[in-house]
Design a protein that fits this description.
CATH class of the largest domain in chain A: Alpha Beta
CATH superfamily of the largest domain in chain A: P-loop containing nucleotide triphosphate hydrolases
CATH superfamily of the largest domain in chain B: MetI-like
Structural class of chain B: mainly alpha
Largest sheet of chain B: none
Helix content of chain B: over 70%
Order of helices and strands of chain A: EEEHEEEHHHEHEHEEH
Number of strands of chain B: 0
Shape of chain B: elongated
Order of helices and strands of chain B: HHHHHHHHHH
Distance between the termini of chain B: 21 Å
CATH architecture of the largest domain in chain B: Orthogonal Bundle
Keywords (chain A): ATP-binding, Nucleotide-binding, Transport
Protein name (chain A): NitT/TauT family transport system ATP-binding protein
Number of domains of chain A: 2
Strand order of the largest sheet of chain A: 6-7-8-3-9-10
Shape of chain A: globular
Radius of gyration of chain A: 19 Å
Largest sheet of chain A: 6 strands, mixed
Distance between the termini of chain A: 53 Å
Strand content of chain A: 15-25%
Number of helices of chain A: 7
CATH topology of the largest domain in chain B: MetI-like fold
Helix content of chain A: 25-40%
Pfam family, one (chain A): ABC_tran
Number of domains of chain B: 2
Organism (chain A): Selenomonas ruminantium
Strand content of chain B: under 5%
Structural class of chain A: alpha/beta
Oligomer: heterodimer
GO molecular function (chain A): ATP binding; ATP hydrolysis activity
Largest interface: A-B, 23 and 18 residues
CATH class of the largest domain in chain B: Mainly Alpha
Number of helices of chain B: 10
Chain lengths: ~260, ~250
């Protein structure tokens, strides 16, 4: 049985002028526990809407979503979402930010601090526990958000374009780190992105979505194991496949003579 | 260094202009004092301890009126901003009351609270209340949705979310309202103290006028100005600290 099950989900919005907009059109998806799934597509393809529905922030118009056999109705600390703009609380120190989710679970104070410090170490920010978010770079802030998510020991981590606001080099570094951390911690990950390379680096399977109306075009498995080399031929093969999916590859019109 | 030069420059311009007006006007010193006469009057007020007493009285009233208005307006604004349904009914009322000068209420304030200590407090309260209330409501309604998502995600429930997430998240925007309210309330302090208070800078102004002591009057006016500036400076400093901590661009 699949762990996450999206069953024939549609979602319409009504625009301000009264017209209806179909963000998701009869989407079906099944995810196994421990999988790293990337939802890939251009803006307007419904990838963020699908993530918000999975995370329980939004409802569906039709169809249902099940996680571990339970219908998703509202957000839960078992499934933590990481946002593009980090969602850190600027008035709290880094350590206190990481403790946030534990406070609601009535974990005793010193236990909380111990757990928070542990996960700060996992993301390499143990020396910044007493800093405030505004003192950190974007990449470091997103690491804090990851530590905060891991601290409540969730089963699933949803990521909504978490690296979109970072520069290219920081982004690649964080991709490698997140990939390593999440596999080490055996989390199921649903990762929304519009960056093809990012999807190939991270995902076990790439869910390719297209807009008007938002639906799943195809699912591409990525058979690259372990640490991924962005320059390897296998990497480029998969990348090419996705370019074809989005019709971004120019047709080869060269004629060959032997 | 540049700033010192500007302040010194403006002080020189003021004193020169003041002295010229006083000399050319040819008024009796009791009606319009010269800078030197004012300085002497100020010296007298300081030496007799009158000024210190009145400053103390005014600051005490101001602290009480302002802080009670701020606490109440922030608490109310937080709840009303959160429960939009209620605010939709109260907003028109607030919009009508806001532009009314607090002094206009004075006859009713005296009727309800009598003369003496209370009118000044109530007027400061009214002056500070509306800017803070409206700033808080607007701040809560314009809050970044990501904070709410984070709170819901970690299971932070309805009553706690206001104090734990919403209030601190919107605090920089409230702080702008607090700053505005401070200036407004300080302006109305004097008016409030003219309604039968027996101490304070407003009383000093009335008292100086009644005794034809224009030098004291001018000294009181200058004191009010300088104290207002000092209060504003303190709040500006706190505000910039908050903005830095929250990682927001400094307000121009």
């Amino acid at each position: 049985m699949s762990y996450i099950k999206v069953e024939d989900v549609s979602r319409h919005f009504v625009r301000a002028d009264g017209t209806s907009f179909q963000a998701l059109d009869h989407v079906n998806l099944e995810v196994r526990q421990g999988e790293f799934i990337c939802l890939l597509g251009p803006s307007g393809c419904g990838k963020s809407t699908l993530l918000n529905i999975l995370a329980g922030f939004e409802g569906t118009s039709e169809g249902d979503v099940y996680i571990d056999g339970q219908e998703v109705k509202k957000p839960s600390p078992k499934y933590v979402t990481i946002f593009q703009n980090y969602g850190l609380l600027p008035w709290r120190t880094v350590l206190k930010n990481v403790e946030l989710g534990l406070e609601e679970q009535d974990v005793p104070r010193d236990e909380r601090e111990k757990i928070a410090r542990h996960y700060l170490e996992v993301v390499g920010l143990q020396d910044f526990a007493d800093s405030h978010p505004a003192e950190l770079s974007g990449g470091m802030q997103q690491r804090v958000a990851i530590a905060r998510a891991l601290a409540v020991d969730p089963e699933i981590i949803f990521m909504d374009e978490p690296f979109a606001a970072l520069d290219a080099l920081t982004r690649m570094k964080l991709q490698d780190e997140v990939s390593a951390i999440c596999r080490e911690q055996h989390k199921t990950i649903i990762f929304v992105t519009h960056d093809i390379d990012e999807a190939v680096v991270l995902a076990d399977r790439i869910v390719v979505m297209t807009p008007n109306p938002g639906h799943i075009k195809t699912v591409i498995p990525v058979d690259l194991h372990g640490r991924r080399d962005r320059t390897s031929p296998d990497f480029w093969d998969i990348r090419e496949k996705i370019f074809e999916c989005f019709s971004l590859k120019p047709e080869d019109k060269t004629e060959y003579y032997i | 260094m540049q700033k010192v030069r500007y302040i010194g420059g403006s002080l020189v311009i003021l004193l020169a202009f003041w002295q010229i007006v006083a000399s050319l006007g040819g008024w009796n010193e009791a009606l319009f004092p010269s800078p030197w006469g004012t300085l002497r009057g100020l010296g007298e007020l300081i030496a007799s301890g009158v000024l210190a007493t009145d400053i103390g009285a005014s600051l005490g009233r101001f602290a009480l009126g302002y802080s009670s208005a701020v606490v109440l307006a922030m608490a109310l604004g937080l709840v009303l901003g959160w429960y939009k349904g209620i605010w939709n009914y109260l907003n028109p009322l607030a919009q009508v009351l806001r532009p009314v000068s607090p002094v206009a209420w004075l006859p009713f304030i005296v009727l309800f609270f009598g003369i003496g200590e209370m009118p000044a407090l109530v007027i400061i309260f009214i002056a500070a209340f509306f800017p803070v209330l409206l700033a808080t409501v607007a701040a809560v309604q314009g809050m970044d949705a990501v904070y709410l998502k984070v709170a819901r995600n970690f299971g932070i429930g309805q009553p706690q979310i206001l104090g734990k997430i919403v209030f601190p998240a919107v605090f920089p925007r409230i702080a702008t309202g607090l700053h505005l309210a401070l200036g407004t309330a300080w302006v109305f302090l004097v008016a409030g103290e003219m309604a039968g208070a027996q101490s304070g800078l407003g009383f000093l102004i009335i008292d100086a006028r009644n005794n034809l002591r224009a030098d004291w009057l001018m000294a009181a006016i200058l004191t009010i100005g300088v104290l207002g500036l000092a209060l504003d400076g303190i709040v500006s400093y706190l505000e910039s600290h908050i903005y830095r901590r929250w990682g927001l661009a400094r307000r121009n």
